[in-house]
Amino acid sequence: MPPKSQEADDKRQAAREVIDILQEISDLLNTNLDRTELSLCVSLIENGVNPDALATVIKDLRKETGSKRVGNAHAVE
Known about the structure:
The protein has helices at 4-28, 35-46, 51-65. It is mainly α. It starts with a helix and ends in a 12-residue tail after the last helix.
């Protein structure tokens, strides 16, 4: 059995790899979510938030703020 610090490092590396993959998917889908936002979304979903409801909230917030970031016209559709 590896030491606890090795296990923690392995878990962090696995989490980074997951976020890397999600970032690639996000880029392909033009969601315009950065790594931090993706991490927060994953965390919310892991804690029971409905993914469809989360997507709706993100779209609504972007509409309210006028989608200030470039290229957000079709984000999270």
